[in-house]
Design a protein that fits this description.
Low-confidence stretches: 530-537
Distance between the termini: 20 Å
Shape: elongated
Largest sheet: 7 strands, parallel
Structural class: alpha/beta
EC number: 1.1.1.95
Family: Belongs to the D-isomer specific 2-hydroxyacid dehydrogenase family.
Number of strands: 22
Keywords: Amino-acid biosynthesis, NAD, Oxidoreductase, Serine biosynthesis
Radius of gyration: 30 Å
Number of helices: 18
Catalytic activity: (R)-2-hydroxyglutarate + NAD(+) = 2-oxoglutarate + NADH + H(+); (2R)-3-phosphoglycerate + NAD(+) = 3-phosphooxypyruvate + NADH + H(+)
Pathway: Amino-acid biosynthesis; L-serine biosynthesis; L-serine from 3-phospho-D-glycerate: step 1/3
Oligomer: single chain
Length: 541
């Protein structure tokens, strides 16, 4: 795999890649946009930080690209939606600089409260003044943390250590998580109305952009302290400036900016304001954090090469890693079933349904659904399909995808069912696992029991004596050996279904000869990609 590194990334953290014989790592820093576009087509992966914009133009030029690795928490500089449409996996390092960002938040808060920066400048200028730099203690203050994720949770714990009362707002966090941290979950407005200190720790999204604006500042107490060490643009910068000037905001600290480097008049005035402690996006700038994020994205690339689950891919549905060992066989089962089922269809797909019954229904099955959809579409479209772009491609093709679950598994502890519909025709395949091996247990309304093999022959016919013998004779004439047979029927001399596992493939002329001899109403030669889920799926199974 050829990988290009376009921004400063810790060499120590990249050691995993430089030591792998499968990888050619090219570090090319400071490339101009046109220079990068000229070379990116040679690479399968790109490692960046904030200095490289992975936009539509770059992704179109990167014809071999499989992975975009952002060595940091955010993905603001990556067009994730367009990457997904191209089947490109986007990974980041959401936890590598967690501690660094949390500590920087407290460093800035304490610097503001104790006038560290201006007292430092005064003393270095030869002055000895103490009275102008009287500060504020944290003990007893009410601190509000917006976003109680990895960084926000650490900030909350540290504020508790300074004997603050901590309120938090995060719609995606459980009450138990808040209780474990010793904080109280409240609404956004309660944060603004009740807190002496407010710090934001959310990603920058359409939902959070300008989340703290004029209305929110209007709800705040006079003398509030504001911090943003998350992402520029979460706090409306003009509103912050206005409230600093009016005195509503006592002061605070900002590390991140909506424009980096800042050049607008509003940002210049904010940076110059004496009530703010400011730094140039240093939250992740510790030696330890830089090594950690580089290690994290390097591991993700190695996971990709080793067909292992990718822990921090932002555009792939994934299981809780604690469940991965239990769920991996079901990913394989789903891939095998869909590879089998799609070969029974000769019409355009209109609807695909995935059903999960039994114990498996207690878990999130969406990665199984996407894995199955990937296997189906890889048989019917020209482009490469993986778990990144499968849902997008299905939507573009107008295919309706449904998922259903029930904890009642019937005769089996777990059953997965695939139903494919199109142009008035319907195909149903149900499967389960026996000692970890995929087995098909139902085709249409016939009970069956077989493990898919590389070469198979399926046919429907009216059950009568001698038909199987005729089929076997014809196959024998062409030196095609039968490995096993599975027969399904509802009644004597009614319609029957037979599935033959063969040692070699059945040519078209032989297929037509068998169809005529058996007067088959349906016949299909099947070719399976037997084994574990392929890398094209992207599930890591």
């Amino acid at each position: 795999m050829k990988i290009i590194v376009t921004d400063e990334v810790s060499a120590e953290g990249l050691a995993l890649l430089t030591q792998d014989a499968r990888i050619q790592l090219d570090v090319k820093l400071g490339l101009k946009k046109d220079e990068l576009l000229a070379v990116i087509g040679d690479y399968e992966a790109i490692i960046t930080r904030s200095g490289t914009t992975v936009d539509k133009a770059l992704l179109d030029a990167a014809t071999k690209l499989k992975i975009v690795a952002r060595a940091g928490v955010g993905i603001d500089n990556v067009d994730v939606d367009y990457a997904s449409s191209k089947g490109v996996i986007v990974v980041n390092a959401p936890f590598g600089n967690t501690n660094s960002a949390a500590e920087h938040t407290l460093a800035l808060l304490l610097s503001f409260c104790r006038n560290v920066t201006i007292a430092n400048a005064s003393l270095k200028a030869g002055e000895w003044k103490r009275a102008p730099f009287t500060g504020h203690e944290l003990k007893g203050r009410v601190a509000g943390v917006i976003g109680l994720g990895k960084v926000g949770g650490r900030v909350a714990a540290r504020l508790k250590a300074f004997e603050c009362e901590v309120l938090a707002c995060d719609p995606y966090v459980s009450v138990k998580r808040a209780n474990d941290l010793g904080v109280k979950l409240v609404s956004h407005d309660e944060i603004y109305k009740n807190c002496d200190i407010i710090t934001v720790h959310t990603p920058l999204t359409d939902e959070t952009r300008n989340m703290v604006g004029p209305r929110e500042f209007g709800l705040m107490k006079s003398g509030v302290i504001i911090l943003n060490v998350a992402r520029g643009g979460i706090i409306n910068e003009q509103a912050l400036l206005d409230n600093l000037v009016s005195g509503k905001v006592l002061g605070g600290a900002v590390d991140v900016w909506s424009q980096e480097p800042p050049s607008s008049e509003t940002l210049k005035q904010l940076i110059a304001n004496k009530k703010l402690v400011v730094t140039p996006h240093l939250g992740a700038n510790t030696f330890e954090a830089q090594i950690n994020v580089a290690i994290d994205v390097s591991r993700e690339i190695i996971n990709y090469l080793d067909d292992k689950p990718m822990e921090n891919a932002v555009n792939i549905p994934r299981f809780d890693l604690a469940l991965m060992d239990q769920m991996r066989p079901f990913l394989n089962l789903m891939s095998v079933m869909c590879d089998f089922g799609i070969q029974l269809v000769d019409t355009n797909l209109e609807k695909v349904s995935f059903g999960f019954a039994g114990n498996i229904a207690h878990y999130d099955c969406s990665p199984l659904t996407v894995c199955g959809l990937t296997a189906l579409l890889n048989r019917v479209v020209d482009q490469d399909v993986n778990m990144v772009n499968a849902s997008l491609i299905a939507d573009q093709m107008g295919i309706v995808v449904e998922e259903s679950k029930t904890t009642q598994g019937g005769a089996f502890s777990n059953v997965v069912t695939l139903i494919i519909e199109g142009e008035g025709k319907r195909r149903l395949v149900s499967g389960t696992l026996f000692e970890g091996v995929p087995r098909i247990v139902r085709l249409r309304d016939y009970s069956m029991d077989f493990s898919p093999e590389e070469h198979m022959l399926l046919l429907n016919y009216n059950d009568r004596p001698g038909i199987i013998g005729k089929v076997g004779t014809i196959l024998g004439q062409y030196n095609i050996n039968i490995g096993s047979m599975n027969l399904g029927r509802h009644e004597k001399k009614g319609e029957a279904m037979v599935l033959l596992s063969l040692d070699t493939a059945v040519p078209e002329n032989v297929l037509q000869e068998i169809k005529a001899a058996a007067d088959a109403s349906y016949i299909r030669a099947l070719s399976m990609r037997v084994g574990a889920c392929t890398r094209s799926c992207g599930c890591g199974a």
